[in-house]
Amino acid sequence: MKHIIAAMPKRVPNPRQLAVWAIAGAFLAASTLLISLLPIPHFSTNGHAFWEILWTNRLRLLAFLAPFALGLSVSLYAERQFRRGFQNDIWNDAELEPVKALVGNPIWTWASLILIAPCLLTVILSQNTAHTGAGAFICIALLPTQTAQRIRQLLRPKEKSTGVFADWQNFKPLRSDHWGDQPLHSSE
Fold first, then answer.
1. How far is it, in rounded angstroms, from Cα 139 to Cα 74?
2. Where are the alpha helices (DSSP H) in 31-186?
3. CA distances from residue 113 to 55, 118, 126 in whole angstroms, order as listed
4. Tens place of pLDDT for every residue, the chain, 188 residues?
5. Which pTM value belongs to this model?
6. 76, 21 in Cβ contact below 8 A?
7. Closest Cα to residue 115, out of 27, 8, 18?
């Protein structure tokens, strides 16, 4: 049995599929914003305790949390698998080109700007900014664009620093023949 398992080729995940799954999961998680616009009914309750309020809103909680939790878990899992594969160099440049084309599209930057603009206007024009929910809207709405930005950042080539402090490992210890001497002041 060990011979068969050892002879089987290891399945290497497709980097483009992982990137698409990460972004699609983020879109599913962000879809909770659209679900929040739907008129989901409240059930009646006899009290105002925490558990009773949760029970009356069970349909709303399920409608919001199910796609958010499923989408976020799919997105984070696919992104983590992509990051591991990239850091372990299991893909060559030709395999990564479709991913670079996907996340390198300027639509991700424009989508971020388009999603942030209404939120900022809501905050600026609202009389009571504590109840606008714009901060939560921005965080959830930007999940797909931020996922694409993180993958793009991972794919950027690392620039070698050519500065003076490029290699901290090879510095020699400081030495001076004048330690403890009084400093010389120039006379003016």
1. 17
2. 32-35, 50-56, 58-87, 93-103, 107-125, 134-141, 143-155
3. 38, 9, 20
4. 555 545 545 666 889 999 999 999 999 988 887 777 667 666 666 666 666 666 676 777 777 888 999 999 999 999 999 999 999 889 888 999 999 999 988 888 888 888 777 767 776 776 665 555 666 677 778 888 889 999 999 988 776 655 555 566 666 677 777 777 777 776 65
5. 0.66
6. no
7. 27
